[in-house]
Amino acid sequence: MSEEACIFCDIVAGKVPCHKVYEDDRTLAFMDINPVAPGHVLVIPKTHYENLLGLTPGDLAAVHQTSQKIAGAIITGLKMPGVAVLQLNGKGANQVVMHYHVHLIPRNRPKDGIEILEWEPKPGNTRSIKSKLQKIQDAL
Q1: Which of 42, 91, 103, 118 is at a distance of 20 to 30 A from 97, taking alpha carbons?
Q2: pTM
Q3: Residue 101 annotated among the catalytic residues of the structure
Q4: How many domains does the chain have?
């Protein structure tokens, strides 16, 4: 749990300002300064965890309870029909800030033009699906 040079830890500590949406004893929600869409909010645990794999169950629950509350406020306050909930783990998944965080991105598709969050379902290869299933189950 290294917080060396972590911008989100600096925000929690009050060393770096943010546009705070909500705060409680375990979590902080603030506006993303590089929004994918207007109203994009980040929700973080106040304790530093690099990603999902290190998070304690209590802080995981707290972040997602706050995310639920803020997502509802985005839908109501911004009159949006939906919110994308995005969470990335590791550089390979394009996690940029190595402090666990959830993106809440207001959506009004297809009008909003956020193509990065659009994909069409394609049938998978059953043999490959079963192979990956077995590897995941073996790892459990």
Answers
A1: 118
A2: 0.90
A3: yes
A4: 1
Of 40, 99, 101, 103, the active-site residue reads 101
Q: Which CATH number do you get for residue 94?
A: 3.30.428.10
Count of Cβ atoms closer than 10 Å to residue 87 Cβ: 16
Site of tokens 């794999």: 53
pLDDT tens profile 66-119: 999 999 999 999 999 999 999 999 999 999 999 999 999 999 987 787 877 777
Answer whether residue 48 is part of any domain. Answer: yes
